[in-house]
Amino acid sequence: MDLGKKVIYQIYPKSFYDSNNDGIGDLRGIIEKIPYIAKLNIDMIWFNPFFVSPQHDNGYDIADYYQIDPRFGTMQDFDELVSKLKDINVDVMLDMVFNHCSTENKWFQEALKGNKKYMDYFYLRKAKANGELPTNWQSKFGGPAWEKFGDTDLYYLHLFDKSQADLNWHNPDVRKEASNIVNFWRNKGVKGFRFDVLNLIGKDENLIDSTDPIEEKKLYTDTPIVEKYIKELNRNSFGQDPNSITVGEMSSTTIEKSIEYTKPSNDELSMVFAFHHLKVDYKDDNKWTQKPFDFMQLKQVLSKWQTGMDQGDGWQALFWNNHDQPWALSRFGDPINYREKSAEMLATTLHLLRGTPYIYMGEEIGMINPHYYSIHNYVDVECLNAYQELMDAGYSAHEAFNIIKTKSRDNARVPMHWDASRNAGFTTGKPWLKPTDQTEINVENELKNGEIFTYYQKLIKLRKSEELISDGHFKAELLDHPQVFAYRRYLDHSSKQLLVLNNFYGYEPWTDIPTDLQGKKATVLIDNYGTKDCITMPDSIKLKPYQSIAFKF
To answer: Which are the catalytic amino acids?
Structure first.
C-alpha cells in the first residue's frame, strides 16, 4: 500500500447533491455526480456519516450503526454507490464515531431501562456528596459535560452535545461492538475507515476534577490505553485487510503520539488528522475569537510536524479543509483579489508535502465562506451555542456575529455549487443551508472557464507519477522568510530534489535560493502562473502574488 500516491476526496453527503429535492443531499445524488468525481482521478472518498441519526450534530450522533438514514437513501443505494465507484477505481471510506453514540441508540435506551449490561456501555456516575456534578469537566460544545441519566440519581458523561453519550471503552463488550460494526461495513466492500475523535476513547475509569482547561484535556486525551484499544480494533477488524486505509481524527494530539499511532510496525492506523496548523488564527488558543492568521506560526507548525513525522516514520493526513473548518481560502488566501491564485497556492503547498492529501468537496473549484447576514442563517449546534456564550460574555450582537461568520462549521457545510442558479444546482427544493456566491463560483463555470479544477488535476497526477512527492523526505527552508513557505523534498537513494516556494501574500517578495542549489540546472515541475522552463537557478527570485512554484533538480 503506497499511501504517498493516494489522494482522498471528502464528501459531506448532506450538502453534495439532492436527487429528490427535499433540500438534503443523498446517496443517489452522489451516484448521479460520479462522472464529475471521475474527472479528478482521486483514489478514495471519505463520506461523513449517513447512518440513522436524530441529526443533533449532523450525523455524528449515531442511533444505528448498521442502517442508512432514510433521509440519505437505502442500503440498495449504498451498495450501488460502492459498485459504481469501484468501476472508476475509487474506494469508499466511512466515518466511524466510536467515542460516543446518540442517546437514541438502543444501547443507551436499554441502559435507561435499567439493563445492567448496557448501563456499563456508558460513563454513569453519581453526584458528589455535596450535590455537585461528578466532575467539573466542560463539554466541547459548551456547558457541563454531565447530564441527568433518566429519573435515576446518576449522570452520564458527554464530551460533546448532551445527545451524544460517551462510550465506556474499558468494557470489552463496547470494544467488540466497534469491531463488529467495522467488519459489517468491510463485508459491504468498504476499504477505508475514518475514526472520529479516536484519541478520546482512553478516559480513566476513575474520573477526577480538573484544575484548568489544558489539564482537563490531558485527563481524557492521548492516554496510554488508547494505543492498546486501537491495536485490538486493528487486529479484530480492518487489520485483516492489508489494503485497508485508516485515519484517526486526533484532537489536541502530539507528534510523538501520532508517530506511535501510525508507524507501520505498530499495527495501529495508516495516518492521523492533527489540527494544530488550523489554530493559527485563534486568539489565546480560543476558537471563538477574531485575529489574522499568524503566518510564521503556520509554517513553523507545518514544518515541525512534517519533520517530526518523517524522522519518526509516522504518516500524516494532509488537509486545509473539512466539514468542521471554515474554508482555508477565506482564512489563508485572498478570496476577493486573488481567489484563483491563492487557491492554487494553498493546494500546491499541501499536495507537495509528505503525507496523503485530502480534498474537501468544493475546494477544487475555490469555494469560500458564505455571505450570511443573520445568525438565523446558521444551524450548527456548536456555533449557535458559541453565539449565545459570546453574548452572555458581553459581546454585542454585531461582534458575536462577526466571530461566528469567520469560525462556524457551517461555512464548509454550505451546499456544493453546481451551477449559478438560485440554489446553486444543489436542489429545486429549499436547501437545508443557504448557498451564496454561486453566480461566480460553481462547477459548471469552473469546468468551462476556470483554472483551479485543472490545477488540482495536475497536482494529483504529479503525486501519482513523481517519486519525490509520494516518497520523498521533507526539509524546511527559509524559515525566517516573512511571506514565503519554502521546503525541499528529497530521496535517500537519489540525488534528485524538489524545491517548493509558496508565497502566502498578494505582493511580490524576493526569495533567496538555498546556496547549494544556486547555479544548478532545474526544471519547473509546476507553477500556478504557468511557467514551464528549464532554468539555471539564480541567487534569488521574485515571486508573483500568491505564486507557488516547484523546481526539480
So the answer is: 196, 249
